[in-house]
TrEMBL record:
It is found in: Membrane. This is Putative flippase GtrA (Transmembrane translocase of bactoprenol-linked glucose). Belongs to the GtrA family. It comes from Dyadobacter soli. GO terms for biological process: polysaccharide biosynthetic process.
Amino acid sequence: MPDQLFNRRDLIAYFVVAATGALTNLLVATLLQEWFHISYKSALFLGYWFSFVVGYFLTRLFAFNAKNTTQSRRQIVKFTLVSIWSCVITVYGSAILYDISTKWLGTFTFLIPFSVKEVNLNKLFSQVTAMGASFLSNYILHKQFTFRDTGFYDRLKVLLGI
C-alpha cells in the first residue's frame, strides 16, 4: 500500500505542501503586479520560482518521506527538472486560459468588501486552474521520479560529463 501511486497519506501531505506553495505563488504574483506593475505572465513566472524554494523543502521534508535520504543532490536536480515542466504548465497555461476567458467572456472583477482592492476573476480562475493541472503533474512526477532512485541522475551525469 505505501508504494501505490495515489496512497492517501502521500496525497494529503502533498496537497497541504502544494497548497502552501500555491498560496505563496498567488500572494507573490499579486503583490508584484500591484507594487511593481509588471505583466501578468512575468508576475506568474517570478511567483512560481519563489514558491519553488518553499515547495522543495516542504515536499522533501513532509510529502514523500525523503528527509532521511542521502541523495539530496539527485533530488534537487530531479526536483528542478519537474519544476521547470510545472512552471511551463502554470505560467503558459494561466496566460492561455486568461486570454481565452477575456476574449470569449469578457473581463470579470470583484471588489473585496470593505476595501478598495479589485480582484480580476479571469486571472484568478486561470491561475488556480493551471496550478491544479500542475499539482497533478507534480504529484505523479515527484512520486515516481524525483524521490525515487530511477537511475536518471547517473545517466544525466554521464551525458553532461560530470
